[in-house]
Every structure is written in C-alpha cells, then in structure tokens.
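User: Please look over both lines:
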Amino acid sequence: MEDHQERAEQLEREADKMEQEAERVGGSIEETRSDWESKEADQTVPGAQPDLERALEEEAEEEQGEDRADDAEEEEDE
C-alpha cells in the first residue's frame, strides 16, 4: 500500500512541475506574440511588415473574386 501512496505523491509532484512549465511556456509564447505584433506595427523594423507586392496581389485576387460573385448574381437575376 505504501508503494501506491509514494507513487501517487510522485505523480502529483510531476503533474505540478508540468503545470508550472506549461504556464512558463504559455507566458513565453504570449510575450513573443506581443513582441512580434509591436514589430509589425513599427515601420522601421525591416522584414516585419507584410510584403507590399504580395498584399496588393492578394487584394486584387479578392476583388476579382467579388466581381465574379457579383456577375454570377446578376446572371441569376436575369
């Protein structure tokens, strides 16, 4: 019976350690995310902003998709 009790206590300690580590890692992730978001907002940080050319291409593709959807709706109405 003592072996079971000792094992249970050992597992509880391990679980507590894992929980503390998870909290530490979670804090690190949040800190890194916050740091990256502030860098993205800072125009003086090279490479942190999205590629302007890519952004313009994606915007054009979205507009084309919207135009196609509008055309399809007009055809249905006729």
